[in-house]
What does this fold into?
Amino acid sequence: MKVNELFKSELKVINMGLESFYQDMKSQDVSAIHVNWKPAAGGNEKMAALLARMKSLQ
Amino acid sequence: MANFIDQANKEALKLMQNAQPTLIGMGIAKDTLPGMRENLILHAGPPVKWEDMSGPLRGAVVGGIIYQGLAETVDEAKELAASGKIDFDSCHHHLAVGPMAGVVTAKMPVFIVKNLDQGNYAYCTMNEGLGEVLRFGAYGENVINHLNWMEKTLYPILKEAIEIHGPIDIKSMNAQALQMGDEMHNRNKAGTSLFIREIASSIVKTNASEEDKVKVFDFLNSNDHFYLNLSMPGAKCTMDPVGKVKYSTIVYGMARNGTEFGIRVAGLGERWFTAPAEIIDGLYFPGYSMEDANRDIGDSCITETSGIGGFAMASAPAIVQFVGGTPADAVQYTTSMYEITLEESVAYKMPNMNFRGVPTGIDIRKVVETQIRPVINTGIASKHAGVGQVGAGVVRPPMKCFEDALQAFVEMLDNEGLLD
It folds into this structure.
C-alpha cells in the first residue's frame, strides 16, 4: 500500500514504546491501543545478558 | 525439550500445589522450635544485629526481654540487648514466621502447623490484636500484661480445644476465606470467623472457667487478624520444601526486618539476598504520614511468596479501603502477578477472576526480565518504638534482591560447568 493511501484510510494504531504517542492518537480520535512493552530487564544490559545465558540452556 | 531448570521448577510447583498445611496443636517455643533457648530472641526478616535494628524491632525486643523475665526495666532490657548476652536470629532459621517485628521468646506459645504432604513443620505465635502490641514495637505494662494473659489463659484453652477438635485443615480454610473476601495477609476477617466457627464447640468443652471461655471468645471476635498467624505458618510450611529443590528459580522466602528486605531462592539454598527495605506510600491513619513510617517490616509476606496476600488481592476488593486504591487496582495487581509466576493455584480460586487460581511460584528470571516486582499488602509500623501501627499500604521488594539472586544463580551454573 502506498503511504498516501494508508493515511487516507481509517487508521488503527498499535503503539509500542512512548505512551505519549498513544495519548496523541487518542486526542485526535484515532483508534489506538497501547502495548505495555519494556525491553528485557528494563534495558539493563548486564541483567539481559545473564537472562540470555540462562535461556541458552537446553 | 524442557531443561533442568524447568524440570526443577516443575518439581517445586508440585510441592506448592500438593502442600497440606494443617494446624495440629500448640506448644511453648522453647520446647517446640528447633534451636530455641532462653537467651535467644527471634525476629522477622533476614538476620540483623541489635545496632542495626529499627525502632519497632528494638521496642519489640525490649518488650520480649521483659516478658521473658530476663530484665525488669526498659533500661535493663536495652542494656542486656546490647551486651552480647542475648542472641538474635531470624524466625525463618527456626521454622517460624512472625508478623511485623516478629519477636519470639522462649516461653511464648506457638501454633504448630504441619505440611502433611512433606511432613515438615512451621510455627507462629498467636496474634495479639491491634493497638498497643509487641509486634509494632510497644513494650509498656499493658503489652506485657496482655502477653501474660495470652500465655496463661488463651494458650491453654486453645491448646486443649485443638486437642479436643483434632487437626484443622488450613488449606481448606484458606480456600474458603479467599472466596469470602480475604487475601489472608491484610484481610483475615473471614478466616478468623471460620476459625472461630470451627473451634467454638471444642472451646466450650475445655475445662476452663466460663469466665475465661467468654474472654477467649471475646478476644477472638475482637481481633480480625487472628487468622493471620495461621495463614503465615501455613504458607511457611508450604514453601520450605521448595527451598530444597536444586536448580529451581522459584522464590521460597521473602521477609523484612525493618531495615532490610530479603529473599531466598530455591536453587540457591538458605542464602539471603538483601537490600534496604522501602518506606511505604500507603494510607496513613489520621495524624500520621510517611514521615512517621518505619521501613517495611515483617515475615507476613510469606503469604505473597505462596501466592496469596497481595497476589490474591482481586478476591479481596474491600481491602482497598485499608491499603488504598480501587477494586480495579486490586484486579490489576493480581493480573500483573501472573507475569512473574509460573502456574495458577489449583486450590486457591478467585470467584471474581472467573475462579482463576492465584498466581503461584515467583520466578526470579521473570521478575528481572519484566521488571515487575511482587506486590505485598502490608501494615505500616511507626518508626518510633511503642507507637504502633500508623497505616497500611502496598509495597514491593527492592529489585536488587532479584538481580543479585539472578547473578548468583548464573555464577552457580558457571561454577558447575553447566553454562556455555
